[in-house]
Amino acid sequence: MGHSPYLDDIDLDETDDPWQRGSARTPSCIGSTMVLKGDLSLEEDLIIEGRFEGSIVQGNQRLSIGEHARVRATIQTGSAIIAGTVEGNIRGGSTVIVKKSARLNGALTAERLCLESGANLEDVILSGNIARIDASD
Amino acid sequence: MTEFTRSLQRRRDPEGRNTNQEKLMFKKTQSEEKPAVSNHPAAADPVMVRTRSVSVIGPTLVFKGELSADEDLVIQGTIEGTIAHHKKNLTVGKEGRVKADINAASVVIEGHVDGDIHGDDFVELAKSAVVTGNIFCGRIKMADGARFNGSIEMGSQQSSQARLSVAEDPLREVSLDSARESSRDPARTHKLGA
For A25, which DSSP code? Predict the structure, then answer.
């Protein structure tokens, strides 16, 4: 996969790695073997690599849905990067990035949307400003 | 539609501040992708390694429902419901509040737990632990200062297994006496738990 110019704009200075800098608040992580069914609310970054069913209510933080994650939920979040499978409505307060490995089904609402071509958006209702569409080779 | 537009306008103000956050997020994407795309060892990024090996439920997280996992888990947040966590270690951290029955191979409690704790291998209560419920375990370690209200049943799993295997085989009368002995324990436990 070629690097998108947008990502290349960002310098990778290790000292400014948010996940290092913000290590006082380590992101919560739902690992690949975890299965959660229920209602989740949190005020910190969240990484989902396992399965989730229910609802996620997050403040103005970041959500990362990994490539192998399966999520069937109503999601309210700040910013999100989605690389996995999501069934349900997603509402992002600022930016939502949809990676090419993502499969979505539901309504996706965000102030800014970044879509990577190749993402499966067949049954998706998009609303928001499409900030960019990245071609993946 | 109009509501959405309005909310957009409201959000447009802090956009300047948000770009920084957005930038940070992109960096995360890239650093996260690197190992997957180019097969670099994940060890290059210590943070990612940590998040991969141990799942963490952070202090601001509140979850109500069923949780099951097959990996080490640290709970610093609030969980209500059930926790099925076979074969691996579960830690309820100092800030952790769990209102659930816990099943795991080994359980370390540093926070609050309201519910039964099943640790097939061992259960450890640190000095900051506050536990209300029954503990079923192979071994137990309780620090000075830990608060615990409930009963402790040790080796209950073996005895219940023995009872089951004997009960299913009526011909094994010889071992029936010993089975009766061991079956008494879980029965009593059940009464206590109820």
Answer: G
Q: Which residues of B touch A50 (CB under 8 A)?
A: 69
Q: How many domains does chain B have?
A: 3
Angle between the N-to-C axes of helices B15-38 and B46-53, in degrees from 0 to 180, rounded to the nearest 10: 80
Cβ atoms within 10 Å, residue A133? 12
Query: Are B111 and B135 within one domain?
Result: yes
ipTM over 0.90: no
To test the contact with chain B by mutation, choose from A20, A23, A36, A74 the residue with the greatest count of B C-beta atoms within 10 A, namely A36
Of the residues A74, A111, A130, A134, the best mutation for testing chain B's interface (the one with the most B CB atoms within 10 Å of its CB) is A111
Measured distance CA(A96)–CA(A121) in Å, rounded? 14
Same domain, B6 and B34: yes
Q: Does A54 touch chain B (CB under 8 A)?
A: yes
pTM over 0.95: no
Q: Which domain range does residue B180 map to?
A: 156-193
pLDDT by residue (tens digit) across B174-184?
A: 444 444 444 44
| B39 at interface of A, judged by CB pairs closer than 8 A | no
